[in-house]
Design a protein that fits this description.
Largest sheet: none
Radius of gyration: 17 Å
Structural class: mainly alpha
Length: about 210
């Protein structure tokens, strides 16, 4: 696979378009699942209840599909950014985002507990994997932004990545200490998805 520098303005290649389609498709599926779950599960509060709690009880399959969609989306995005000429920062980003993808794909197999802190083995695994995936996402965003900031044409996704990484780190800490955990998790997820979408588009168009 050929490597492209960040300042290239060449026409997107077929492989990059395919990866972008999978990335945006996964984001679309996840977003649709979340909207459906928020509509159907009015018993859960967006402020105090975590997204993972939608996987408990009825409509659990919808929540599980959303986790898988995110995992596939981030994995495809990771493959796409691997076409960028590598340096330490981009390598760190790729490995960190792979951890995020793996975490999202693992979550459906380990349901969360309805209470905090978790008391079951599956609940503990779920919490550890989710926290690790979120932390890895923040690390990946920051590292990739350090790689992108060297070119002015990548300044917008770079700044979004730095701000997003800081926001995700703060939200993760707030979630751990149960400060409006549902709301902070939703902000965290929204920031991460927005950055993936913006950066995927930038990689695809090379402009």
């Amino acid at each position: 696979m050929s490597r492209l520098d960040l300042h290239d303005r060449t026409t997107p290649r077929k492989s990059s378009l395919t990866h972008a389609a999978v990335t945006f498709g996964g984001i679309g599926v996840f977003s649709a699942c979340m909207l459906l779950l928020h509509w159907r599960r009015a018993d859960l509060s967006p402020v105090t209840d975590l997204v993972s709690e939608y996987a408990l009880g009825r409509d659990s399959i919808i929540a599980q599909i959303s986790f898988v969609a995110v995992g596939i989306s981030v994995l495809s995005f990771t493959v796409d950014i691997s076409t960028v000429r590598p340096d330490v920062a981009s390598r760190v980003a790729i490995y960190a985002l792979r951890i995020t993808s793996a975490g999202a794909l693992i979550l459906p197999f380990f349901p969360t507990d309805p209470t905090w802190p978790p008391v079951t083995t599956t609940g503990m695994i779920h919490s550890a994997v989710a926290t690790g995936a979120m932390g890895a996402m923040a690390c990946g965003m920051f590292s990739m932004s350090m790689r992108m900031r060297r070119k002015s044409i990548w300044m917008v996704p770079s700044l979004l990545g730095v701000g997003g990484a800081f926001t995700m780190a703060v939200c993760t800490v707030l979630m751990v200490f149960q400060v409006a955990p549902g709301l902070t998790e939703r902000v965290l997820l929204g920031v991460g998805i927005l950055w993936v979408a913006a950066t995927s588009r930038a990689v695809r168009t090379r402009k």
